[in-house]
Amino acid sequence: MVLEAPSIKAKTTITWEPLPANFILPDDPVENIQQPALAAALTDALGASGYIQPEMLIGSNLGLVATVNKKIVVKAPDWFYVPQVYSVPEGVIRRSYTPNTDGAAITIVMEFLSEAEGGELAEKLAAKLRELGIDPEP
Questions:
Q1: pLDDT of residue 32
Q2: Contact, 29 vs 113, CB < 8 A?
Q3: How many C-beta atoms lie closer than 10 Å to residue 106's C-beta?
Q4: d(Cα 32, Cα 18) in Å, to the nearest integer?
Q5: Is this prediction's pTM over 0.85?
Q6: What is the distance between the alpha carbons of residues 66 and 54, in angstroms, rounded to a whole number?
Q7: In Å, what is the CA distance from 33 to each residue of 13, 69, 105, 113?
Q8: Residue whose C-alpha is closest to residue 109's, from 99, 94, 118
Q9: Is residue 99 a contact partner of residue 73, using CB atoms and an 8 Å limit?
């Protein structure tokens, strides 16, 4: 006797929409005290080699935004690199980045390990989304 399970293929839909206007990103400090030094070392190495250009975005703990199956997902990696982004108006501080809306796709993402459970900024962003009634998990 052979049992055959039906094929279940859920289609994942990803869209690139900016965060809602009422979404406030936290300014909490990072939990891993080595994280800023590691991120700075990566950025400094690129700068010393002459690799950094004005159209690039190299960031740390900035909210990266996507909408997966109609649910907003925000992740804040410890370090990331985008080769080309659109400029923001003078006086505006970039608090989040949405690929294909704000510029090119993210090329490199790094997450450094944290000793504390729940200490990652991405987890804090997920809690904030839940407060707004938005499920952060696709």
A1: 60
A2: no
A3: 18
A4: 28
A5: no
A6: 24
A7: 36, 35, 29, 11
A8: 99
A9: no
Q: What per-residue confidence (pLDDT) applies to 36?
A: 79
> Shortest CA distance to 135 belongs to which of 89, 64, 69?
69
Contact 20, 133 (CB under 8 A): no
Q: Is 73 left (phi over 0), alpha (psi -120 to 50) or beta?
A: beta
| H-state helical runs in the chain | 35-48, 121-131
Nearest residue to 86 (alpha-carbon basis) of 101, 108, 106, 66: 101
- Give all strands of the β-sheet with 57-59 in edge-to-edge order: 57-59, 79-82, 108-110
> Residues 28-79: pLDDT tens digits?
655 566 677 888 888 998 899 889 999 999 998 788 888 898 888 888 888 9
- The DSSP secondary-structure symbol of 73 reads E
> What pLDDT band is residue 121 in, cutting at 50, 70 and 90?
low
- Euclidean distance between CA atoms 130 and 124, whole angstroms: 10
Q: Is residue 109 classed as helix, strand or coil in its secondary structure?
A: strand
So where are the chain's domains? 30-131
